[in-house]
Specification:
The structure is a single chain. Helix content is 33%, strand content 28%. The protein is elongated and about 75 Å long. 31% of the residues are buried. Helix 3 packs parallel to helix 5. It has 321 residues and is of the alpha/beta class. It has two domains: 214 residues, P-loop containing nucleotide triphosphate hydrolases (Rossmann fold, 3-Layer(aba) Sandwich), CATH 3.40.50; 62 residues, Alpha-Beta Plaits (2-Layer Sandwich).
Length: 321
Protein backbone atom coordinates (compact mmCIF):
# COMPACT_ATOMS: atom_id res chain seq x y z
CA UNK A 1 0.00 0.00 0.00
CA UNK A 2 1.23 3.50 -0.81
CA UNK A 3 1.55 6.27 1.76
CA UNK A 4 2.03 8.96 -0.91
CA UNK A 5 0.67 9.11 -4.44
CA UNK A 6 1.65 11.97 -6.74
CA UNK A 7 -0.73 12.28 -9.70
CA UNK A 8 0.04 14.55 -12.66
CA UNK A 9 1.49 17.35 -10.54
CA UNK A 10 2.21 20.76 -12.08
CA UNK A 11 3.83 23.85 -10.59
CA UNK A 12 4.85 26.76 -12.84
CA UNK A 13 6.50 30.09 -12.00
CA UNK A 14 5.86 32.61 -14.79
CA UNK A 15 7.55 30.89 -17.76
CA UNK A 16 9.50 28.35 -15.63
CA UNK A 17 8.01 24.87 -15.28
CA UNK A 18 9.34 23.71 -11.92
CA UNK A 19 7.19 20.55 -11.90
CA UNK A 20 5.69 19.45 -15.19
CA UNK A 21 3.24 16.52 -15.10
CA UNK A 22 5.05 14.31 -12.56
CA UNK A 23 3.47 11.15 -11.15
CA UNK A 24 4.88 8.50 -8.81
CA UNK A 25 3.95 6.52 -5.69
CA UNK A 26 5.83 5.91 -2.44
CA UNK A 27 5.05 2.58 -0.69
CA UNK A 28 4.55 2.57 3.07
CA UNK A 29 7.71 1.79 5.02
CA UNK A 30 10.00 2.32 2.03
CA UNK A 31 13.11 4.49 1.80
CA UNK A 32 12.50 6.50 -1.35
CA UNK A 33 15.23 8.49 -3.09
CA UNK A 34 14.29 11.79 -4.75
CA UNK A 35 17.10 12.57 -7.19
CA UNK A 36 17.92 15.22 -9.75
CA UNK A 37 20.53 17.84 -10.70
CA UNK A 38 20.37 21.51 -9.73
CA UNK A 39 17.02 23.09 -10.55
CA UNK A 40 15.36 19.77 -11.36
CA UNK A 41 12.24 20.48 -9.29
CA UNK A 42 13.01 18.39 -6.20
CA UNK A 43 12.57 21.17 -3.65
CA UNK A 44 9.30 22.29 -5.25
CA UNK A 45 8.04 18.68 -5.04
CA UNK A 46 9.00 18.45 -1.37
CA UNK A 47 7.32 21.75 -0.58
CA UNK A 48 4.10 20.59 -2.24
CA UNK A 49 4.23 17.27 -0.39
CA UNK A 50 4.57 19.17 2.90
CA UNK A 51 1.84 21.70 2.03
CA UNK A 52 4.18 24.70 1.84
CA UNK A 53 3.25 25.15 -1.83
CA UNK A 54 0.01 24.21 -3.56
CA UNK A 55 0.17 22.57 -6.99
CA UNK A 56 -1.28 24.38 -9.99
CA UNK A 57 -2.76 21.10 -11.18
CA UNK A 58 -2.73 17.48 -10.08
CA UNK A 59 -3.34 15.63 -6.87
CA UNK A 60 -1.41 14.41 -3.83
CA UNK A 61 -2.89 11.48 -1.94
CA UNK A 62 -1.83 10.78 1.64
CA UNK A 63 -2.84 7.40 3.01
CA UNK A 64 -5.28 6.96 0.12
CA UNK A 65 -7.09 10.30 0.48
CA UNK A 66 -6.44 13.85 -0.73
CA UNK A 67 -3.62 15.47 1.22
CA UNK A 68 -4.87 18.07 3.71
CA UNK A 69 -2.05 20.25 5.10
CA UNK A 70 -4.17 21.28 8.07
CA UNK A 71 -4.58 17.74 9.40
CA UNK A 72 -1.78 15.72 7.77
CA UNK A 73 1.12 18.02 8.57
CA UNK A 74 1.46 16.51 12.07
CA UNK A 75 2.13 13.12 10.45
CA UNK A 76 5.14 14.54 8.57
CA UNK A 77 8.68 15.26 9.72
CA UNK A 78 10.72 17.47 7.39
CA UNK A 79 14.43 18.01 7.83
CA UNK A 80 15.58 20.54 5.21
CA UNK A 81 19.16 20.89 4.05
CA UNK A 82 19.26 24.43 5.47
CA UNK A 83 19.36 24.55 9.27
CA UNK A 84 15.90 25.16 10.72
CA UNK A 85 17.06 25.79 14.28
CA UNK A 86 17.00 29.02 16.31
CA UNK A 87 20.65 29.84 16.99
CA UNK A 88 20.09 31.76 20.22
CA UNK A 89 17.75 29.19 21.74
CA UNK A 90 18.96 26.40 24.04
CA UNK A 91 18.98 22.90 22.58
CA UNK A 92 16.59 21.34 25.10
CA UNK A 93 14.11 24.22 25.00
CA UNK A 94 14.16 24.18 21.24
CA UNK A 95 13.50 20.44 21.01
CA UNK A 96 10.59 20.86 23.44
CA UNK A 97 9.16 23.78 21.48
CA UNK A 98 9.37 21.99 18.13
CA UNK A 99 7.80 18.83 19.55
CA UNK A 100 4.84 20.81 20.89
CA UNK A 101 4.43 22.50 17.50
CA UNK A 102 3.86 18.99 16.15
CA UNK A 103 1.04 18.42 18.62
CA UNK A 104 2.88 16.60 21.42
CA UNK A 105 2.01 17.31 25.02
CA UNK A 106 4.73 18.79 27.21
CA UNK A 107 5.01 15.56 29.21
CA UNK A 108 5.28 13.32 26.12
CA UNK A 109 7.74 15.71 24.54
CA UNK A 110 10.01 15.68 27.60
CA UNK A 111 9.90 11.87 27.69
CA UNK A 112 10.87 11.67 24.02
CA UNK A 113 13.62 14.27 24.45
CA UNK A 114 15.11 12.23 27.29
CA UNK A 115 14.91 9.04 25.21
CA UNK A 116 16.59 10.51 22.13
CA UNK A 117 19.14 12.64 23.99
CA UNK A 118 20.18 9.53 25.94
CA UNK A 119 20.34 7.45 22.78
CA UNK A 120 22.46 10.02 20.92
CA UNK A 121 24.51 10.78 24.07
CA UNK A 122 23.88 14.53 23.93
CA UNK A 123 22.40 15.23 27.37
CA UNK A 124 25.32 17.56 28.08
CA UNK A 125 24.10 19.80 25.25
CA UNK A 126 20.67 20.43 26.81
CA UNK A 127 21.44 23.95 28.06
CA UNK A 128 23.81 24.93 25.25
CA UNK A 129 22.72 27.42 22.63
CA UNK A 130 22.52 26.06 19.09
CA UNK A 131 25.11 28.59 17.90
CA UNK A 132 27.62 26.99 20.29
CA UNK A 133 27.39 23.66 18.46
CA UNK A 134 29.34 22.50 15.44
CA UNK A 135 27.57 21.92 12.14
CA UNK A 136 27.52 18.16 12.76
CA UNK A 137 26.17 18.57 16.31
CA UNK A 138 23.43 20.86 15.00
CA UNK A 139 22.56 18.21 12.43
CA UNK A 140 22.03 15.62 15.18
CA UNK A 141 19.77 18.01 17.09
CA UNK A 142 17.80 18.77 13.94
CA UNK A 143 17.41 15.07 13.16
CA UNK A 144 16.07 14.35 16.65
CA UNK A 145 13.69 17.31 16.44
CA UNK A 146 12.37 15.96 13.14
CA UNK A 147 11.59 12.43 14.37
CA UNK A 148 10.48 13.02 17.98
CA UNK A 149 6.76 13.02 17.14
CA UNK A 150 7.07 9.64 15.33
CA UNK A 151 5.94 10.86 11.90
CA UNK A 152 4.39 8.55 9.32
CA UNK A 153 6.37 10.35 6.62
CA UNK A 154 9.95 11.50 7.22
CA UNK A 155 11.56 13.78 4.63
CA UNK A 156 15.36 14.03 4.86
CA UNK A 157 17.20 16.52 2.66
CA UNK A 158 20.97 15.88 2.86
CA UNK A 159 20.75 14.38 6.39
CA UNK A 160 24.48 13.51 6.56
CA UNK A 161 25.71 17.03 5.85
CA UNK A 162 28.45 17.98 8.31
CA UNK A 163 28.51 14.60 10.05
CA UNK A 164 31.69 12.61 10.68
CA UNK A 165 31.64 8.90 9.67
CA UNK A 166 30.68 7.68 13.14
CA UNK A 167 27.68 10.00 13.48
CA UNK A 168 26.72 9.44 9.85
CA UNK A 169 26.51 5.71 10.59
CA UNK A 170 24.45 6.48 13.70
CA UNK A 171 21.90 8.45 11.66
CA UNK A 172 21.96 5.84 8.90
CA UNK A 173 21.09 3.06 11.34
CA UNK A 174 18.23 5.13 12.73
CA UNK A 175 16.91 5.58 9.18
CA UNK A 176 16.93 1.81 8.66
CA UNK A 177 15.28 1.21 12.05
CA UNK A 178 12.57 3.78 11.39
CA UNK A 179 11.82 2.18 8.03
CA UNK A 180 11.61 -1.30 9.60
CA UNK A 181 9.11 0.09 12.11
CA UNK A 182 6.86 1.43 9.36
CA UNK A 183 8.03 5.00 8.80
CA UNK A 184 8.05 6.03 5.15
CA UNK A 185 11.16 8.03 4.26
CA UNK A 186 11.89 10.39 1.37
CA UNK A 187 15.65 10.75 1.06
CA UNK A 188 17.06 13.57 -1.08
CA UNK A 189 20.81 13.74 -1.64
CA UNK A 190 23.50 14.41 -4.22
CA UNK A 191 25.54 11.40 -3.02
CA UNK A 192 24.66 8.55 -5.34
CA UNK A 193 26.57 5.93 -3.32
CA UNK A 194 24.33 6.75 -0.34
CA UNK A 195 21.29 6.23 -2.55
CA UNK A 196 22.47 2.75 -3.54
CA UNK A 197 23.20 1.84 0.07
CA UNK A 198 20.04 3.23 1.66
CA UNK A 199 17.14 3.50 -0.80
CA UNK A 200 14.68 0.81 -1.90
CA UNK A 201 13.22 2.89 -4.73
CA UNK A 202 14.06 6.14 -6.50
CA UNK A 203 12.56 8.72 -8.81
CA UNK A 204 14.85 10.82 -11.01
CA UNK A 205 13.60 14.22 -12.15
CA UNK A 206 15.14 16.85 -14.38
CA UNK A 207 13.81 20.16 -15.72
CA UNK A 208 10.53 19.48 -13.95
CA UNK A 209 9.94 16.11 -15.61
CA UNK A 210 10.27 12.53 -14.38
CA UNK A 211 13.02 10.60 -16.16
CA UNK A 212 12.72 7.26 -14.38
CA UNK A 213 11.05 5.67 -11.39
CA UNK A 214 11.40 2.24 -9.79
CA UNK A 215 13.29 -0.12 -7.49
CA UNK A 216 17.03 0.51 -7.28
CA UNK A 217 17.90 -3.13 -8.05
CA UNK A 218 15.61 -3.23 -11.08
CA UNK A 219 16.91 0.06 -12.46
CA UNK A 220 20.47 -1.25 -12.31
CA UNK A 221 19.32 -4.35 -14.19
CA UNK A 222 17.43 -2.28 -16.76
CA UNK A 223 20.53 -0.23 -17.59
CA UNK A 224 23.13 -3.00 -17.54
CA UNK A 225 25.46 -3.20 -20.54
CA UNK A 226 26.17 -6.96 -20.39
CA UNK A 227 29.65 -6.48 -18.98
CA UNK A 228 31.46 -9.20 -17.03
CA UNK A 229 34.77 -9.32 -15.17
CA UNK A 230 36.58 -12.65 -15.35
CA UNK A 231 39.50 -13.46 -13.06
CA UNK A 232 42.08 -16.13 -13.94
CA UNK A 233 44.62 -18.20 -12.05
CA UNK A 234 46.88 -17.97 -15.10
CA UNK A 235 46.36 -15.42 -17.83
CA UNK A 236 45.15 -17.19 -21.00
CA UNK A 237 46.84 -16.66 -24.35
CA UNK A 238 45.10 -15.03 -27.29
CA UNK A 239 44.07 -18.34 -28.90
CA UNK A 240 42.27 -19.35 -25.70
CA UNK A 241 40.45 -16.01 -25.49
CA UNK A 242 39.41 -15.35 -29.08
CA UNK A 243 35.69 -15.96 -29.59
CA UNK A 244 32.65 -14.35 -31.20
CA UNK A 245 30.74 -14.50 -27.87
CA UNK A 246 32.34 -11.36 -26.41
CA UNK A 247 34.72 -8.47 -26.99
CA UNK A 248 37.44 -7.47 -24.55
CA UNK A 249 36.84 -4.06 -22.95
CA UNK A 250 39.69 -4.02 -20.44
CA UNK A 251 42.70 -6.18 -19.60
CA UNK A 252 44.25 -6.46 -16.14
CA UNK A 253 47.19 -8.60 -14.94
CA UNK A 254 44.92 -11.57 -14.15
CA UNK A 255 41.50 -10.47 -15.38
CA UNK A 256 39.46 -9.37 -18.37
CA UNK A 257 36.41 -7.14 -18.55
CA UNK A 258 34.34 -8.35 -21.49
CA UNK A 259 31.13 -7.34 -23.21
CA UNK A 260 28.72 -9.95 -24.49
CA UNK A 261 27.87 -9.87 -28.16
CA UNK A 262 24.22 -9.91 -29.14
CA UNK A 263 22.71 -13.37 -28.96
CA UNK A 264 25.33 -14.71 -26.51
CA UNK A 265 24.91 -15.45 -22.80
CA UNK A 266 27.17 -15.53 -19.76
CA UNK A 267 27.08 -19.33 -19.97
CA UNK A 268 28.69 -19.04 -23.41
CA UNK A 269 31.61 -17.20 -21.81
CA UNK A 270 32.12 -19.84 -19.15
CA UNK A 271 31.76 -22.69 -21.64
CA UNK A 272 34.35 -21.10 -23.91
CA UNK A 273 37.03 -20.95 -21.21
CA UNK A 274 36.18 -24.41 -19.88
CA UNK A 275 36.68 -25.87 -23.37
CA UNK A 276 40.13 -24.26 -23.47
CA UNK A 277 41.05 -25.47 -19.96
CA UNK A 278 41.47 -21.92 -18.65
CA UNK A 279 41.32 -21.76 -14.80
CA UNK A 280 38.70 -19.18 -13.75
CA UNK A 281 39.00 -17.78 -10.21
CA UNK A 282 36.10 -15.29 -10.37
CA UNK A 283 33.20 -14.36 -12.62
CA UNK A 284 31.13 -11.27 -11.92
CA UNK A 285 28.53 -9.28 -13.82
CA UNK A 286 29.24 -5.54 -13.75
CA UNK A 287 26.07 -3.51 -13.17
CA UNK A 288 25.95 0.26 -13.61
CA UNK A 289 25.99 2.45 -10.52
CA UNK A 290 23.08 4.78 -9.85
CA UNK A 291 25.54 7.61 -10.45
CA UNK A 292 26.20 6.28 -13.97
CA UNK A 293 22.46 5.90 -14.66
CA UNK A 294 21.90 9.42 -13.32
CA UNK A 295 24.50 10.96 -15.64
CA UNK A 296 23.31 8.95 -18.64
CA UNK A 297 19.67 9.90 -18.21
CA UNK A 298 20.28 13.59 -17.56
CA UNK A 299 22.72 13.80 -20.46
CA UNK A 300 20.32 12.07 -22.86
CA UNK A 301 17.63 14.62 -21.96
CA UNK A 302 19.71 17.81 -22.10
CA UNK A 303 22.55 16.89 -24.44
CA UNK A 304 24.99 17.94 -21.72
CA UNK A 305 26.21 16.03 -18.66
CA UNK A 306 25.35 17.31 -15.18
CA UNK A 307 28.11 18.61 -12.95
CA UNK A 308 31.07 16.29 -12.54
CA UNK A 309 30.38 13.13 -10.56
CA UNK A 310 31.05 13.50 -6.85
CA UNK A 311 34.61 12.78 -5.82
CA UNK A 312 34.61 13.83 -2.19
CA UNK A 313 32.49 15.54 0.41
CA UNK A 314 34.19 18.89 -0.02
CA UNK A 315 33.14 19.18 -3.66
CA UNK A 316 29.55 17.92 -3.97
CA UNK A 317 28.43 17.05 -7.49
CA UNK A 318 24.75 17.83 -7.24
CA UNK A 319 22.71 20.04 -4.97
CA UNK A 320 19.55 18.78 -3.33
CA UNK A 321 17.79 22.07 -4.09
Amino acid sequence: MNLIEIKHLYKHYATHKAVDDISFAIPKGSIFGLLGPNGAGKTTLLRMITGIFYPDKGEILFNGRPFDPQTDIHAIGYMPEERGLYKKMKVGEQALYLAQLKGMSERDAKDKIKYWFDKFEINSWYNKKVEELSKGMQQKVQFISTIMHSPDLLILDEPFSGLDPINANLIKQEIFDLSKNGTTIIFSTHRMEQVEEICDRIVLVNQGKKLLDGEVKQIKQDFKQHLFRIGFGVMPNFAQVATHHFSIIKQEPLAYTVKLTEGSTNNDILAHFIRHNVPITSFQEILPSINEVFIQQVTSMTGEPPQAANVDDSQPAYSSN
